[in-house]
């Protein structure tokens, strides 16, 4: 029992020292550059889940944190990991492609975006280029 208390205390102290936020998801988000600055948790977390599924990755692919630690222990604000800026560029690219497609060939009302992460990545962190004969 004493060991469990010590381990719990050490983990709690560690997570507090790595710039962790108090709760996840937070009441508001910092450093949003592509999503609206006032985006709610459902929008932000939903977008991140889309990345995870589309690229077959976990949070630490773009954010500072360790697998197995609670999300409160992650530093989601930092831009230290290069993949985060790549994700931003890809978000802008897919938005642009979808706007151009909608202008050229309008989609039916209620139909999802035509191009998303999974369009090219198909569950892999690096997309496979199609090889034509």
Please outline the helices and strands.
Layout: H1 2-17, H2 41-55, H3 82-104, H4 117-121
What would your notes on this structure say?
The chain is an all-alpha fold. It has one domain. It is 44% helix and 0% strand. The chain has helices spanning 2-17, 41-55, 82-104, 117-121. The termini are far apart.
List the keywords.
single chain, disordered N terminus, 133 residues, mainly alpha
Largest sheet: none
Q: What value does the Rg take, in angstroms?
A: 18 Å
Number of strands: 0
Q: Calculate the mean pLDDT score and round it.
A: 83
Order of helices and strands: HHHH
| Beta-strand percentage range | under 5%
Q: What is the helix tally?
A: 4
- Spatial separation of the terminal alpha carbons: 65 Å
- Helix fraction by DSSP (H/I, runs of at least 4): 40-55%
**Overall geometric form:** globular
Number of domains: 1
Spans of at least 5 consecutive residues whose pLDDT stays below 50 are 1-18
Structural class category: mainly alpha
What's this, in brief?
44% of the residues lie in helices and 0% in strands. It has 133 residues and is an all-alpha fold.
């Amino acid at each position: 029992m004493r060991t469990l208390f010590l381990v719990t205390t050490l983990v709690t102290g560690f997570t507090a020292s790595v710039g962790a936020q108090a709760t996840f998801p937070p009441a508001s988000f910092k450093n949003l550059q592509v999503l609206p600055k006032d985006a709610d948790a459902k929008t932000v977390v939903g977008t991140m889940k889309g990345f995870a599924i589309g690229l077959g990755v976990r949070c630490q692919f773009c954010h500072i944190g360790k697998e197995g630690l609670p999300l409160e222990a992650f530093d989601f604000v930092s831009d230290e990991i290069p993949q985060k800026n790549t994700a931003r560029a890809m978000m802008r690219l897919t938005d642009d492609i979808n706007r151009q497609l909608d202008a050229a060939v309008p989609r039916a009302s209620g139909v999802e975006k035509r191009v998303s992460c999974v369009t090219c990545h198909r569950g892999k962190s690096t997309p496979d280029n199609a090889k034509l004969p």
